[in-house]
UniProtKB/TrEMBL annotation:
Keywords: Membrane, Mitochondrion, Mitochondrion inner membrane, Transmembrane, Transmembrane helix. It comes from the Eukaryota. Component of the mitochondrial contact site and cristae organizing system (MICOS) complex. It comes from Eremomyces bilateralis CBS 781.70. This is MICOS complex subunit MIC12.
Length: 149
């Protein structure tokens, strides 16, 4: 082996060993860093626990147009049901009876003069008027439609 070959072989072997040593140390240091970080977190949690996360808030969706319409409808139905349950129906019936009696009395009073007029009036029968109608003959075209001449 010559001088240059030996020299270059020595440099290659030395740099390879140096590279592998540094690579091994970096790998070992990364593993130790991970282990120390885990141990520190474990010890910290024993004397200073991490506060629990707040409970997630419920997600609410805005009601759509149809749901809003249903809610309004239901509110109106409830309001009308409450109104109907709070009415004194006996009083309403009595007021309707009195009103119907007044209307019937006025109709009978208004009908008596009309009956007298009908009995005294002479009824004339009207004769229907005669109307002249002329009919024009229709000529048939080659497509079968009517064509007036």
């Amino acid at each position: 082996m010559g001088f240059t070959t030996g020299f270059l072989s020595g440099i290659t072997i030395t740099t390879s060993l140096l590279y592998l040593t540094v690579l091994s140390q970096n790998s070992t240091r990364a593993t130790q860093r991970t282990l120390l970080s885990q141990q520190r977190a474990l010890l910290t949690q024993t004397y200073d626990p991490v506060p629990s996360l707040p409970e997630p808030r419920a997600h609410t969706e805005n009601a759509g147009l149809s749901e809003m319409a249903k809610d309004r409808w239901n509110a109106d139905v409830e309001r009308l049901a409450r109104w109907a349950s709070n009415i004194n129906w006996d009083e309403v019936r009595e007021r309707v009876e009195v009103g119907a009696g007044n209307v019937w009395r006025k109709v009978r009073e208004a009908g008596e003069p009309m009956r007298e007029r009908v009995e005294n009036a002479e009824v004339e029968e009207e004769k229907p008027k005669e109307v002249a109608v002329t009919v024009t003959p229709v000529e048939k075209s080659r497509w079968g439609w009517g064509k007036s001449s």
